[in-house]
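re: that chain from earlier
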Amino acid sequence: MYVISAWYGFLNKSHVLQINSLFKRLFKYGYVKSVIELEQLLQDYDDKLFTKATQGNHAMHHLLPSPKSTCYNLRTLGHGLSVNPELHKNKFINRLIFDYSTDFCFTSFI
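^ sequence. v structure.
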């Protein structure tokens, strides 16, 4: 399950429904204590991984875009990073950047 963040973008809706039904059966037969949904599991893993990736010593740190610098004296909006067009092929990094653009403050970059 540790690769779910990288491979989730390649799953279609039927795959997600099959995995969720597997989790429901695991709960029904007592293998897990609560019903797990794939989307919630993905969100939890993405939260942890993105927090780690924003640290300067993480192996994925170089995949994040460089901090954006502006000459305007405006209040900060979003995450303050510019998006590298070459990274659009990597769905995982894009999802992290756009999902956490309003939720996470990048004080370590500024």
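The chain has one domain: 4-99.
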